[in-house]
């Protein structure tokens, strides 16, 4: 497959559809130097973006958290995504909306005089974890930790927050793993590099409390699905050693969807009935 910079198609950029190869920014774009960028990852099923409006609302909230005045409303973002999706000709697709500080009068840390720009790109993307979607992913345990809310806007989906994710996933893949699991700054179980995590014990579900990391839209969706099925869900702080007593485990995220986990470091889990049922139910929901 061609690189992401060398494909046929159109990308929505600053109000118009441009040729994929012409969707470029200047080398002195502020976001490239200071990570002044936020984004959303979304999936379309049967030509419709799942939870699209919730993603657009979060995009604006993330921009505000980084002190970037959003130049578009939710309705305008929705229209941009719709235009990009239709231009792609795809029914099932991944949708990436990104907002960033462009190049302008400022090139130091401060960038208030630089324009805030937006783009939407759409492409086909299969299972994020490949065969792990059925067999159960293998996770490493990351050396880095999710930071305190006192240090960074942890609830923004901001590019800068993914730096340790890239490092940790590279190290995990070098060990033959699909991903890495972070602890938080207090030592509690947090999340994977791009997905939230759930555990099962005695028919009940336990998931880390999202007080220092992103409360994923897929995470929220799956919690509501579990509650609708009458399954007890505990959102709480989880110590790493508790993983030894959990029976099942899965990840959730727009890209990951619902992916079972078979191993995390020394801990093993079965790809059990509840995991399979919630994965199937999620697949049915997004295509309904």
CATH class category name of the largest domain: Alpha Beta
The dominant shape is globular
Strand content: 25-35%
Number of helical regions: 7
Secondary structure tally: strands:
15
Given helix and strand content, the structural type is: alpha+beta
Question: What do you see in this structure?
Answer:
The protein is an alpha+beta fold and 288 residues long. It has helices spanning 30-34, 52-65, 74-88, 132-135, 163-174, 217-228, 273-286, and strands at 10-13, 16-19, 37-45, 48-49, 93-101, 116-123, 137-146, 179-184, 189-192, 196-201, 204-208, 233-236, 248-253, 257-264, 267-268. The protein folds into 2 domains: 10-123, D-amino Acid Aminotransferase, Chain A, domain 1; 132-286, D-amino Acid Aminotransferase, subunit A, domain 2 (D-amino Acid Aminotransferase, Chain A, domain 2). The chain has 7 helices and 15 strands. Strands 7, 8, 9, 10, 11, 12, 13, 14 and 15 form a 9-stranded mixed sheet that branches. The radius of gyration is 19 Å and the shape is globular. It starts with 9 loop residues before the first strand and ends with a helix.
Any chance you could write out the topology, listing elements then pairs?
Layout (H helix, E strand, L loop, with lengths): L9 E4 L2 E4 L10 H5 L2 E9 L2 E2 L2 H14 L8 H15 L4 E9 L14 E8 L8 H4 L1 E10 L16 H12 L4 E6 L4 E4 L3 E6 L2 E5 L8 H12 L4 E4 L11 E6 L3 E8 L2 E2 L4 H14 L2
Parallel strand pairs: 7-8, 7-14, 11-12
Antiparallel strand pairs: 1-2, 1-6, 3-4, 3-5, 5-6, 8-9, 10-11, 10-13, 13-14, 14-15
């Amino acid at each position: 497959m061609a690189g992401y910079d060398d494909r046929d198609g159109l990308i929505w950029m600053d109000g118009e559809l441009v040729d994929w190869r012409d969707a470029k920014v200047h080398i002195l774009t502020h976001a490239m130097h200071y990570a002044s960028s936020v984004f959303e990852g979304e999936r379309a099923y049967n030509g419709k973006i799942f939870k699209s409006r919730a993603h657009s609302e979060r995009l604006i909230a993330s921009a505000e958290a980084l002190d970037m005045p959003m130049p578009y409303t939710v309705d305008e973002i929705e229209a941009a995504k719709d235009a990009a999706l239709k231009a792609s000709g795809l029914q099932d697709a991944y949708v990436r909306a990104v907002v960033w500080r462009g190049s302008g009068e400022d090139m130091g840390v401060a960038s208030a005089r630089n324009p805030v720009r937006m783009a939407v790109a759409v492409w086909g993307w299969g299972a994020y974890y490949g065969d792990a979607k059925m067999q159960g992913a293998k996770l490493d345990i990351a050396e880095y930790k999710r930071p305190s809310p006192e240090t960074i806007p942890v609830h923004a989906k901001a590019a800068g927050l993914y730096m340790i994710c890239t490092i940790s996933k590279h190290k995990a893949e070098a060990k033959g793993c699909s991903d890495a699991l972070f602890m938080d700054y207090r030592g509690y179980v947090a999340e994977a590099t791009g997905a939230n995590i759930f555990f099962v014990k005695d028919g009940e579900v336990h998931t880390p409390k999202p007080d220092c990391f992103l409360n994923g839209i897929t995470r929220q969706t799956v919690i509501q699905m579990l509650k609708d099925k009458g399954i007890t869900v505990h959102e709480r702080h989880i110590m790493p050693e508790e993983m030894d007593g959990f029976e099942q485990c899965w990840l959730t995220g727009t890209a990951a969807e619902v992916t079972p986990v078979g191993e995390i470091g020394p801990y093993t889990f079965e790809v059990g009935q509840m995991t399979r049922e919630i994965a199937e139910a999620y697949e049915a929901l997004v295509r309904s």
